[in-house]
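Quick one, T. Sequence first:
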Amino acid sequence: MELLSSLKKEDILELFSHGHGLCSHCQTLLHVRITALRKRKFDQTSSPDEGFQSSAGDHVTDMPMSPVNANVSNSESLTKNHPKQWDTPSQRPHSNTDHNKRIFYSSPKYLLGCKQSDFELLLNDGICGDFSFEENGLSEEQKELIRYSQVHTKKNFTFVERVNRRYINVLQGLQLHTGVFNTVEQRKIVEWIYRLQWRGQQGKLKNRTFSEPRKWMRGKGRVTIQFGCCYNYAVDKNGNPPGIMRDEEVDPLPPVFKQMIKRMVRWNIIPSTCIPDSCIVNIYEEGDCIPPHIDHHDFVRPFYTVSFLNECKILFGSNLLVVCPGEFAGPVSISLPVGSVFVLNGNGADVAKHCIPSVSSKRISITFRKMDESKLPYKFSPDPDLVGIKPLVISPLNESVKGQDEVGNLHIQQLKADSVESESETVWNTRKVLSNVK
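C-alpha cells:
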C-alpha cells in the first residue's frame, strides 16, 4: 500500500488498465471495490438532492441510486397447469420472503454521482466477469452469439376454450423468452428505473409521464411511468375515453430502453417490422396488481413485457374472475421469470384477457408497444436511434466460429443445463435413471 500511495494518478491508471495481466475476476472485484468507495465518499460529502457534473463533461445522474445484490434468480420454470386448474388465492403457493430474495432496494441515499454510461448495456455484461471470455479475445460478434445462445424460447402455449360458439386456442401467439437480460443488465435497468421514479417524484419529468396515485385500497396505486405517448386508462374528468391522448406530451424513450429494444430486435424477439415506439413502466409494491383486461387497439400487436426483481404469475382466459380486490382466478397461469421477455400476440392478445394478481413482493415490469399510425400523438417524431435495426443472422459459419472457443462452449453448456433444470427436476430425472438401471 505504501508503494501504491507513492505512485502518480497516471501510473495507477496505467497499472490497472486492461492488458496489464489482471484476470477478469480481478477486474470485476476491483470495479466493485471502486464503486463501493465512490458511493461511500458521496454519502459522506453530498446531500441526497444534489446533482453532479463530471469534470470531463460526462452527464451524471441527478438522483441517488439504490444498492443491489447481484444474486438475481434467472429461473426459467414455467408453471404447468392442467387445463381445468384455476389459480385461486388459496391455491397460490406462498413465495419465499427470505431476505436474500429481496435483492433490490430503492432509497435516496445511495450511489450519488453515477454517470449515464454506468447504465449502458454491453454485450460483455456478465460475460467477462463470470466466464472470462474477454481473455480469450472474442470479437463483439462472437460475444453476441454467446449471449444469444443463452436465450430459451417457449412458444407452444395451448388452452382451448369455446368463444363465440367456436373452440379455439386462446393462448395462440404467446411467447416467453428467458435469459434475455442477465443479472448485470437487470441491475443496470432497475437502477435506471429508480432514477426515473425519483425524477418523477421531484417533478423533473413531464406531467403525464409519471403517475403515483394514492393507495386507497388493496391493488390500487401502483406507480406508472409512460414514454412515447400518454395512454388514458379510463374516461377521465374531462370526458376523454380510454386510449392514446394525441394532444398530450410525455418524455421520449430513455437511452437504456432503446438499447433494450435494439437487443430484442437483434435477437429475433421483436420483428424489425414492428419496432416499439412507446412503453410503460409498472412499479409494483406488495399487494399491487393489474386487473383483467385486453390491451387497447390503439397499440398494434405484438407487444412485449420485460420482468424484473421477482418472478410473478400472469393469468389468461376468455373469462377471468375477480375473487376480491387484487385477487383473480383464471384457467391458465404462466410464470414470468426475471430477465425474461413475454410476447403477447394473436389470440393471446386479442381474445384472452390477462391480469397480474396482487404481487407478494416488489416487482418492476416494462411493456414495450408500437402505436397505431393513426393514433400517434400530434407532436410525435420517430426516434432515429430505432430506425434500421437489423436482426442477428445465425449462419453455419457463425455457428462454427462460435464453436471454436472450447472453454466458452463448456460454460455455455453448463449455463444451459443449470437454467433448464431446476433442483426438483434434477432429482426426478436421477430417480428415473436409477429405476431404469434396476
